[in-house]
């Protein structure tokens, strides 16, 4: 009889610990496309293929960003936008998780709440603006409320869908081991829905940055959305593009922070991505 050493099956390789060089290489790869776009854009303007007035080159946009930063205006606008997004994300995420957990776990609540929430999800973001101004005025409250609405729906959909898609066999195993309801939720349901919930939070954060532009249409005097509107009114294409780039950098940094903060929660996962 062949011993265990004769077994042809091989254990799956353990994921290699990521080093600083791996992280640096990943960042370098991520910069290839933006740098190529910048070089191509700059070359197109200088060779006359693109009109510099409507499509200012990256060098002019960089000067605009530097001037805004040197005057302190950029940091003021970034701070205002970040505070609004952070507050709206916090309120929207908490409400989305609570509503998603309720409708995902209780069929009666799903039948009562889900149709109405799905209908409200189809309402365009700008449609809420006049109503929130009428109800809440033109200060910070309606802006935060609008961002919270934008964050709420992807988080709600993600959490409710994750709970509804939990494998029934896992629940049955928990009942076989006589787990209490609290133990079942903590040891089976929570790990099962956590990855999808974190993905929903990332989606909600991205939509928070989308909705903040609509929110800053409500009579805002500061914020990156205000920079966009100000650039449009005074035909400052370089300021508009500078605000867009600031939005892109800020959104990417916020997403990176969210991923870094939540990564320890899913450290137990052994996914194919870790071995690729």
From TrEMBL:
<comment type="similarity">
    <text>Belongs to the binding-protein-dependent transport system permease family.</text>
</comment>
<dbReference type="GO" id="GO:0010438">
    <property type="term" value="P:cellular response to sulfur starvation"/>
</dbReference>
<dbReference type="GO" id="GO:0005886">
    <property type="term" value="C:plasma membrane"/>
</dbReference>
<keyword id="KW-0472">Membrane</keyword>
<keyword id="KW-0813">Transport</keyword>
<keyword id="KW-1133">Transmembrane helix</keyword>
<feature type="domain" description="ABC transmembrane type-1">
    <location>
        <begin position="78"/>
        <end position="262"/>
    </location>
</feature>
<dbReference type="InterPro" id="IPR035906">
    <property type="entry name" value="MetI-like_sf"/>
</dbReference>
<feature type="transmembrane region" description="Helical">
    <location>
        <begin position="85"/>
        <end position="107"/>
    </location>
</feature>
<protein>
    <submittedName>
        <fullName>Aliphatic sulfonates transport permease protein SsuC</fullName>
    </submittedName>
</protein>
<keyword id="KW-0812">Transmembrane</keyword>
<dbReference type="InterPro" id="IPR000515">
    <property type="entry name" value="MetI-like"/>
</dbReference>
<dbReference type="GO" id="GO:0042918">
    <property type="term" value="P:alkanesulfonate transmembrane transport"/>
</dbReference>
<comment type="function">
    <text>Probably part of an ABC transporter complex. Probably responsible for the translocation of the substrate across the membrane.</text>
</comment>
<keyword id="KW-1003">Cell membrane</keyword>
<feature type="transmembrane region" description="Helical">
    <location>
        <begin position="144"/>
        <end position="164"/>
    </location>
</feature>
<feature type="transmembrane region" description="Helical">
    <location>
        <begin position="24"/>
        <end position="41"/>
    </location>
</feature>
<feature type="transmembrane region" description="Helical">
    <location>
        <begin position="240"/>
        <end position="261"/>
    </location>
</feature>
<keyword id="KW-0614">Plasmid</keyword>
<feature type="transmembrane region" description="Helical">
    <location>
        <begin position="119"/>
        <end position="138"/>
    </location>
</feature>
<feature type="transmembrane region" description="Helical">
    <location>
        <begin position="207"/>
        <end position="228"/>
    </location>
</feature>
<dbReference type="Pfam" id="PF00528">
    <property type="entry name" value="BPD_transp_1"/>
</dbReference>
């Amino acid at each position: 009889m062949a011993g265990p050493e004769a077994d042809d099956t091989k254990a799956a390789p353990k994921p290699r610990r990521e080093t600083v060089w791996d992280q640096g290489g990943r960042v370098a790869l991520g910069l290839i496309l933006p740098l190529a776009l910048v070089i191509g854009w700059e070359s197109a303007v200088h060779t006359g293929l693109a009109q510099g007035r409507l499509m200012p080159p990256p060098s002019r946009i960089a000067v605009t960003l530097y001037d805004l930063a040197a005057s302190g205006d950029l940091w003021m606008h970034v701070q205002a936008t970040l505070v609004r997004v952070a507050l709206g994300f916090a309120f929207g995420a908490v409400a989305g998780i609570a509503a998603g957990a309720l409708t995902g776990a209780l069929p009666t609540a799903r039948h009562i709440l889900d149709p109405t929430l799905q209908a409200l999800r189809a309402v365009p973001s700008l449609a809420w603006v006049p109503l929130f101004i009428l109800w809440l005025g033109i200060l910070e409250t309606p802006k935060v409320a609008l961002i919270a609405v934008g964050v709420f729906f992807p988080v709600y959909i993600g959490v409710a869908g994750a709970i509804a898609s939990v494998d029934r066999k896992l629940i049955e195993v928990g009942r076989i081991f006589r787990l209490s309801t609290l133990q079942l939720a903590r040891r089976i349901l929570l790990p099962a829905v956590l990855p999808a919930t974190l993905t929903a939070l990332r989606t909600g954060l991205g939509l928070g940055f989308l909705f903040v532009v609509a929110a800053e249409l409500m009579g805002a005097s500061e914020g990156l959305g205000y920079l966009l509107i100000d650039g449009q009114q005074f035909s400052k294409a370089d300021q508009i593009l500078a605000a867009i780039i600031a939005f892109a950098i800020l959104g990417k940094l916020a997403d990176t922070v969210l991923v870094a903060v939540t990564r320890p929660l899913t450290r137990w996962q052994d996914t194919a991505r870790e071995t690729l």
